[in-house]
Amino acid sequence: MNKEKLYKATCKNHRMIESSINVIKKNIKSNINLENEEEIIIYTRIFSFLVTCRIETRILKIIYEINAFDESEIHIILKNSTLCEKWIRTLNMLICKM
To answer: pTM here?
Structure first.
């Protein structure tokens, strides 16, 4: 896949994750009102997972944006093991480009 297709796919994934987060938030609020603790825990865990996915798709949107990074820079960013390291590397590289 080329960078443009990766960027479009990442944007689509990001929109789907945002929609899913909104659905889960509604379920959490509903279950809080019903005082359903087990459901609250389940939906909160799903919410946490989705927020992590959203963070990752935001990094991917930035790095696959047209003319943001070349292939070697993308590889450098993605080889970092944690999301935090990827964000730090991405931001540092963006600042150096300014």
So the answer is: 0.83
In a domain, 82, yes or no: no
- Which structural domain, as residue segments, surrounds residue 37? 3-69
Q: At what angle do helices 37-64 and 3-34 cross, to 10 degrees?
A: 160
pLDDT digits (tens, 9 = 90+) for 41-59: 999 999 999 999 999 999 9
In a domain, 85, yes or no: no
In the chain, how many domains are there? 1
Distance CA 46, CA 48 (A): 5
Q: Which amino acid is located at 27 in the chain?
A: N
Predicted confidence at residue 97, as pLDDT, reads 87
Angle at 51 between CA 41 and CA 31, to 5 degrees: 30
Helices (H), the chain: 3-34, 37-64, 71-78, 83-97
Which of 31, 15, 24 is closest to 45 using CA atoms? 24
Residue 58 resides in a domain:
yes
